[in-house]
TrEMBL record:
Record's keyword terms, sorted: Membrane, Transmembrane, Transmembrane helix, Transport
Major subcellular location class: membrane
Citrate transporter-like domain mapped to chain residues: 8-275
Name under which the protein is recorded: Citrate transporter
Lineage of source species: Bacteria, Pseudomonadati, Spirochaetota, Spirochaetia, Spirochaetales
Length: 339
């Protein structure tokens, strides 16, 4: 179709608005080093390289449920590199970063605000919160257990290991309270307790204006582009009929495979228009976040950070990353077929 004002109707404004508000609030948390402070406190209880990895992977897993997988990795992967470098034990960095990446993709699957595709599916299909959790819990629980088992490959003892952590600035209580309240307002908009335009307005007005530059506008524009693209496809009867037939009773497998090729967020925006089976699509695109490097754009974030740290070992990283992710894809296929 030629460009027209009808494009406006293709866009899910609530998803964009809620995602924008959450990004802004999380930028506020990151500016006050909230997540780094939390990690520093936890790391005081670590005495071995394995315990350090467990804490850093664990905090990535659980934080991704609330602040998205992208933000969790942007925050904790650099921290991992710094902490192990300070501890004079750099060998666990590669495997820890890979496990953090998987942990973020798996952990974020549990909640509607854990990643962009979940936020869209929750809004688009109006899934009940309880149903959402119950649908994803078997995958997140089993994935968490596998992450824990793989952490056992991190060396427990190291002669050169000496724990040192960076000191972080103290957190202003006033700011912490302000952004916590704004985070709750953003969540209220996601769950329709507050009108989303009102929530966005409150968050923008009450946040520090310099945080606006930290919002991932490229992701928001990607959403807009795919909304328009899919809206146009919807007018092509032959295409819509073909995609509808392809997805029928195969939503999980098609969405998992599509995620490997075009990433799970675009796959979600594309396939949601052609199926009413929300739970199968939800499971498929989240399981599909594991696999290839581009299956989840959060995985690309980790890879870029590691490549900047140690460019010579990127091939090794990709090899281990692929092996680990294949294990998780096989696990999720087993859960889907036999749970």
């Amino acid at each position: 179709m030629p460009p027209s004002m009808g494009y406006i109707d293709y866009i899910d404004w609530k998803t964009l608005g809620c995602l924008f508000a959450l990004m802004l609030v999380v930028a506020g948390f990151r500016k006050m080093y909230l997540f780094t402070k939390l990690s520093t406190i936890l790391l005081r209880y670590a005495h071995t390289p394995r315990q350090v990895s467990m804490i850093l992977v664990g905090v990535t897993f659980f934080s991704s449920m609330l602040v998205t997988n992208d933000v969790a990795l942007i925050t904790f992967v650099p921290l991992t590199i710094v902490v192990f470098s300070l501890c004079k034990e750099t060998r666990p960095i590669l495997f820890t970063v890979i496990l953090q990446t998987v942990a973020a993709n798996v952990g974020s699957s549990l909640t509607p605000v854990g990643n962009p595709q979940n936020l869209f599916i929750y809004s688009y299909y109006h899934i009940g919160l309880g149903d959402f959790f119950l649908t994803m819990f078997p995958y997140v629980f089993s994935g968490g257990v596998l992450v824990g088992l793989l952490l056992l490959f991190i060396p427990k003892v190291s002669q050169s290991f000496t724990l040192q952590v960076q000191e972080t600035p103290s957190i202003a209580k006033g700011k912490l309270i302000r952004y916590t309240l704004l985070f709750l307002v953003s969540l209220a908009a996601v769950f329709d307790f507050v009108s989303w335009p009102v929530a966005v307005l409150i968050v923008v007005v009450a946040s520090e204006k310099l945080l606006l530059k930290d919002v991932d506008y490229s992701l928001l524009l990607t959403f807009v582009g795919f909304f328009v693209f899919v809206g146009n496809i919807g007018h092509l009867k032959q295409v819509t009929d073909s995609l509808t037939r392809l997805l029928e009773k195969r939503e999980f497998f098609v969405s998992l495979l599509a995620s490997q090729i075009i990433s799970n967020v675009p796959a979600t925006l594309l396939l949601a228009q052609f199926t009413g089976n929300a739970t199968e699509l939800l499971k498929g695109v989240n399981a599909g976040g594991c696999g290839t490097l581009i299956a989840s754009m959060a995985s690309v974030i980790s890879f870029k950070i590691f490549a900047h740290y140690e460019a010579k070992r990127t091939i090794v990283y990709l090899g281990f990353f692929t092996i680990v992710n294949i294990l998780f894809v096989l696990l999720f296929l087993f859960i889907h077929l036999f749970w």
